[in-house]
Design a protein that fits this description.
Distance between the termini: 60 Å
Shape: elongated
Largest sheet: 3 strands, antiparallel
Strand content: 5-15%
Structural class: alpha+beta
Number of strands: 3
Number of helices: 4
Strand order of the largest sheet: 1-3-2
């Protein structure tokens, strides 16, 4: 029985399909997280590896930790002494 060949996608198409930037995919390639090949003058990646490497920001622990703040407006101030902390957060919009 023959093993199936992986489906290869051009880097730009894989980035668009899985919602990550080409720069992110290139970083993953450079770090050895996903494999890539050159076909002609185009970089291609395995669709399966690109899919597994493309983590949505909503799935990251850092994002989940602060997800309850979605919809709140935050700002920065120059001087720390001008900060007044209200007793509660106000939802904007």
């Amino acid at each position: 029985m023959m093993a199936a060949l992986p489906t290869l996608l051009p880097l730009a198409e894989a980035a668009r399909k899985y919602g990550v930037s080409e720069a992110r995919l290139k970083t993953l390639i450079e770090n050895g997280k996903i494999r890539a090949a050159m076909i002609g003058d185009e970089v291609v990646v395995s669709e399966e590896e690109a899919r597994s490497a493309a983590v949505r920001k909503e799935d990251l622990p850092e994002y989940k930790r602060h997800a309850h703040l979605k919809g709140y407006r935050f700002g920065l101030v120059k001087r720390q002494e001008s900060i007044r902390f209200p007793n509660r957060l106000y939802r904007v919009g």
